[in-house]
User: Fold ATP-binding protein from Lysobacter hankyongensis.
Amino acid sequence: MSNSRELADVLTQIRLGEDSLVEFKRIVFENDRIKGPNTESLCQEIAAFANAIGGRLILGVDDKTREVVGIELDRLDEVVGWVERSVHDRIKPEPTVYLRRMLVPDRAGIECAVLVVDVPRSLYVHLAPGGYFRRQGSSKYELPPNELLRLMQSRQRAGTLGFDEMPVLGCTRNDLVPELYDRFIGNTDEPAELRLRKLKLLVPGEPGEEWVSVAGVLMATATPHEWLPQAYIQCVHYAGSERIAQEQLDAQDVRGPLDHQIREATAFVLRNMRIAAFKHRGRVDVPQFDPDAVFEAIANAGAHRDYSIPGAPVQVHLFADRLEITSPGALPNSQSVDSIALRTATRNELLTNLLARSPVDIVVVARGRVMEKRGEGVPQILGRSERLSGRRPRFELLGDNALRVTLYAADPETSPLVRDVYLDGLHYPAPGRGNDAQDQD
Assistant:
């Protein structure tokens, strides 16, 4: 269903009420059909979000009282099907939506089922029954002809861009931090504003306006999550092999510029994983996971995730027997899990170019820049992890909305590293011994 952080986010939104990004709707049944909201109203709300900056529709909450009224569990499938059909049949072109079923407590503490419909900002302009609508404040409005023309012109241009080049509405030049963008500008006599435009950190918005791009927000603002709420990495360390809240040993939501997030999420794993020491004609440190493989997997997740999906951070979950890194979005450009190690495909070209100019600054990671763009990342994850644990990492698609890579923990008793270390002189520097570190004679 949902983890505790997602539930907390939804509860907070319900308590605060509707705004530019959140709309509530009560589901009302009459005999064997859904009476409210009517299909036209539902489609208008979804199209209005897609035509603006995206948003979230929560079905099962009263929009006047903010009361969680829920949806009957035995009718939840019916509501899901109704939303999917309505979007497919009544909105042109069909927008992308993400549906999630959640259990949310009402005021008496009783869990009720709700349906969360996340609508990302679209590259297109969507026609709903009754016209073209856009979200403004806590309500929608029908676009007058002059605004519709400007929006279509803007989106037509944006349709040729990657999402990371898209403007972020409301984020201006004043929100950029000089210390962060100076590292990309370099030594030049050109005015900073001109360089920011050439680097596509500043891009044209709708006519007469200039905003920071998605990549600019991620790399050159201090708090990207204020503009893109999904732009953070959720790190959790569990004692066992399951996601059990009571077994959490450490947790951190890593925010800030993306390269900082990648470094901090890697540091989270390295300080929490166990380092065993094997003694045989000298000491060999055997970490649970290869530091370079960990860094590469987290960097790939942050760089190549789909930032158009709202409410979905990158997840780094450390278990006793494995490390799972989940990245929102399916594989880009017709890639498959079978071909991922064979060919390179980039979802966020501008963003990866900026990361290729960002230093790593992690002692135990043997690379200079966050991204090296040589197509060697996935082969390194596979090869170094298998060399350490004896098990090949697993890449898997979770439906159409996420990619997960699983790195398996090394057992010092059976690790190929211990067997081979005296043959090739390979040695892993210990990034810090955890509480479970042990010496084996």
